[in-house]
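This section describes the prediction task in plain terms. A model, or a person checking by hand, is given the sequence of a single protein chain and must write out its three-dimensional structure as a string of tokens. No templates, partner chains or ligands are provided. The sample shown here is typical of the held-out split.
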Amino acid sequence: MPIKTQIKKLLFSDISTNDCDQKIDHLLGIDPEKVERLLDERKEDITKGQDAYLGESLSPHALFTSYRDCYQILSHLKTKPGEVLLDLGAGMGRMSITAALFFPHLKVKSIEMIKQRIELAIKVYKNLKLSTEGFIIGRFENIDLQGTHYIFLYLSSNSILKTMMEKLKNLALAAPFQIIAVESHGDLLPTLRKDYPWLITEPFKLKTFSKRWNQNITFFKPLPLSQMKNYHKEEKDLFQHFFEILKKEYTLLLKDIPQPWRHPFLLHLAKSKDFELVIKDKDVGCPTKYCWLASTFELSKTLEGEKYQAMFPEREFSMGQIESIIRPGPNWHDWRKLRFKNTKLGSFGEVRKIVISPKKMIEFSLRGRIPLEDLNINKDLY
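The expected answer:
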């Protein structure tokens, strides 16, 4: 029986999706579980210097999109000859393998940062005597998106996703496309909905065969071209205006940003270490309010979407607590630098918070808050 016939029979059999994947992998002559075990042993070396995701000892069943899900997605899309699907975070290339077997008219570009994974798909393609030019080992940010009709996203909502979405926003000004998103880490789908207002959630959705945090396979498309151009121009003009204020006055009050643009602008600032948010706060059991600085760098919204998560320092706060955005002067440079590096200062510990009012103070992990003037005068203390 031809291998294609055997695989299709497995796809529509009544065995579990996990068993189905394992049997198909065996038929194709690949062993993903062995590769994942080896990757887990070498994860520090493999992920060094990149935002690659290894899955923390997850099995291929939990880590990769199932063959059944790849098949139902490609069947639903009703792709046409010559169209291109870009698989971002392709893993072991199940989407490209499924397309090669059952939808050969579709060109799939599989992008994966971990070469040991994508080499499994390359092995299958070579056994099937197919060209392997569609497999790309490298960073997603460097991929040419022109001519893409479909983008399959199976990514966490990290800095890579933010960079890719910026590229896709620009692509939407040239040609329409469709995004197919499967939840990978519990936050991709809500992130796409709340962080990218230029995306429209399509009314239909599929359910994954694999058990996941969210079993929806969700489809998105960009705004119509005319609306997309208006959105892009308004965003460009407003953001330029905001940056001019920060350049001249060093401070931009949150209330001076139109409400629909507050979150998009904060998201835009998440790429920069140059800006800080002034956060209004008070300690538990103490009525006195104070303000501290949270870097905009790597700022994100929490999974529930009600609060923001800062990484420097690692704290949560609501939109209502943000008083302003500032471009700090050089007097704060050294303390901000220490906070970014999590550097320990002897018995003081790490810099936790930079408090700017009602009194300038530095909060340390071991010594609590110390007035800035005392630190400046007594530098021998630390």
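For orientation: Residues 225-249 form the longest helix (25 residues).
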